[in-house]
Prior knowledge:
By secondary structure, the protein is an all-alpha fold. It is 73% helix and 0% strand. The chain has a domain at 15-33 and 52-77 and 109-424: Sodium/glucose cotransporter (Up-down Bundle).
Amino acid sequence: MHVLAEANLRLDANAVDYVLLAFYFLLVLGIGYLARRQVSSSLDFFLSGRSLPAWVTGLAFISANLGAIEVMGMSANGAQYGLPTAHYFWIGAVPAMLFLGIVMMPFYYGSKVRSVPEFMLRRFGKPAHLVNGISFAAAQILIAGANLFLLATVVNVLLGWPIWVSIVLAAVIVLSYTALGGLSAAIYNEVLQFFVILAALIPLTVVGLYKVGGWEGLVEKVTASPGGAEQLDSWPGTELTGFADNFLSVLGLVFGLGFVLSFGYWTTNFVEVQRAMASKSMSAARRTPIIGAFPKIFIPFIVIIPGMIAAVTVTELMGENKAALLAGDDAASGATFNNALLYLMRDLLPNGMLGIAIAGLLASFMAGMAANLSSFNTVFTYDIWQSYIKKGREDAYYLRFGRTITAVGTVLAIGTAFIASTYSNLMDYLQQLFSFFNAPLFATFILGMFWKRMTATAGWVGLVSGTFSAIGVFILAETGVWDLPGQGASFVGAGAAFVVDIVVSVVVTYMTQPKPEAQLAGLVYSLTPKDSLKHSTTGDDAGWYRKPGLLAGIALAITIILNFIF
């Protein structure tokens, strides 16, 4: 593990910065305390009683994703690969978010399920439900650990405390408000954190661009740096994918990232779907991911560009040091790309502004980790504990258990934080996890939703086969049997998981008996009454600016234009 408390990374915070930080933490805990007063049932704790407006759930939807991984990981990617990182947003997020709002959300919200695994239970039965519940819970703990590790590195840099002390402190703060107020506390804090993150990153980007002489100055410096002009065009992104061939690189981006990883993450990941399910109406639930897509389109400009600026202005990351890092030698400067944003903050921001920036970073990490914990506690309580271990207890029991398992999840995340600490670019780690957990789930999900013949046995066998094929690709890449640099291993693993899952599911389906059609209404597209998929257009849902289809069309048009410009 890299020790980040070296003098060269210590942020020169003063009393003003610490006062701002203390105020922010009091505000976060206060929101948790106030939200607790609204929690009287398990539905309130796990799904906010389905009472929140679309703008709140929409901002929480994007803030839950704007965690440490997004802010530090994407700026690390910006420093390492440059503009091809924008694919994680314009190819790897927005289209899938729009698909979730238009096609998938009516199923989730309309069927009144409380979690994605519960949808799997109704469609495929207990084995698929249990496999999905366990794999999802494991994924959330691993991802929460990555958020926690990055949160701890910032506390470590700020105060010089040992990493393990920082990890425990950070975990306790997030646990406090998530266990107090449940999903409402997490969501309202995520809305606050969204604005704090913007207040931190926009000035950093503006000051950074001013320092390098504007966009033209940045282009000039990046062209002359290791990695060169390729870092200024998002296509074909060969460095990012690890494929030397342009066609294979584009195929990897469009199919591996844009379809399998992206749709797998956004449409079946309960961390995100949970926010939309907390909405107060079907229309608000559909608008949630679409509203979230608009900030998502523009976030690359405040996370990737600071990373690119860091790679041409920060001593530890530029010139020979960057060349060494690109070659895999992170001992040369003692730095990693993960620290790009911290270095830039150290070099550019005055006191006061530094306090806001640090609060913004901490906000992003806490938003990400709280999202992981609030979805972990829901799935573990409803889909594992209530379904298989302690059935038929009173509601108050599950509410108490939900708070307890939140604490257990936090302790486990402290353990997984040390796994995350072994990666010099955490996006490599995250994409690997998504290829294991999300890609096969998406294949099972999409097949089951649109193919009524698919059987319950095919559901869980396909899921397990897909997961193991992705793990197989990972092992082959790690042992050097396949040479897949960059994030190529996760793209290939995701593609393999998806294809294997589909093939196995089709074969098993024709060897087993399907469910009667009467049991599949509301779970398969062709068997669901079209009226049940419609939403109201009156009252709070009236007005052209509340039409999900129109909003999705505008977001898609902007995304296509940006892909052509960059």
